[in-house]
Amino acid sequence: MRVAKIGIIGTGHISEIYCENLTNVHANTEIVAVADVIREVAEKKAAKWNIPYVLTVEQLLAREDIDIVVNLTPPKNHYEVIKAALLAGKHVFTEKPLATTAEEADELIALAEEKDLMLGAAPETNYGAGVSTAKDLLAKGAIGKVLYADARFRWPG
């Protein structure tokens, strides 16, 4: 079995579940390096998950042993990071959204196709278990007729 070598860019909150799954769930993946604009955060993540290298983004992208870049940066940085990774010859998986404009997303898709690289993005939360269950329960009338709803997004980024 070939093991895919992973480089993670962005070691904030969401990186924890990625490290857990890439380390303990998927036997065919190995996290080789992490990079973050706050080096101390990347160093803590690397120490916790026994990741060998803490690098700059440029150093991570230059490594020939990294097959896939996992982009966990804030959405405003997705286009720039993904484009650099594709130009470096890396497959990319990114948190949502792929880019902040349709034009940028189209450009990234075209670049991945041109370079024969895989480009994937996390599914929108609307398709996750919690939202899907809530939609199903509402459709079945489990709580009666909904007269009013209020939702707030309280996470920056």
Describe the protein.
With 157 residues, this protein is an alpha/beta fold. 39% of the residues lie in helices and 17% in strands. The chain contains six helices and six strands. Strand 2 (29-35), helix 2 (39-49) and strand 3 form a beta-alpha-beta unit. The protein is globular. The mean pLDDT is 91.
Key words describing this protein structure:
alpha/beta, 157 residues
Provide a quick synopsis of the model.
With 157 residues, the protein is of the alpha/beta class. It is built from six helices and six strands. Strands 3-2-1-4-5-6 form a six-stranded parallel β-sheet, with helices on both faces.
Sequence of secondary-structure elements? EHEHEHEHEHEH
Please estimate the helix content.
Answer: 25-40%
| Mean pLDDT rating | 91
pLDDT < 50 runs, ≥5 residues: none
- What's the arrangement of strands in the largest beta sheet? 3-2-1-4-5-6
Name the structural class: alpha/beta
Q: Can you count the helices?
A: 6
Shape label: globular
**Main β-sheet, in a few words?**
6 strands, parallel
Task: Evaluate the radius of gyration.
Answer: 18 Å
Q: Please state roughly what percent of the residues sit in beta strands, choosing from under 5%, 5-15%, 15-25%, 25-35%, 35-45% or over 45%.
A: 15-25%
The end-to-end span amounts to: 37 Å
Counting DSSP E segments of at least 2 residues, the number of strands comes to 6
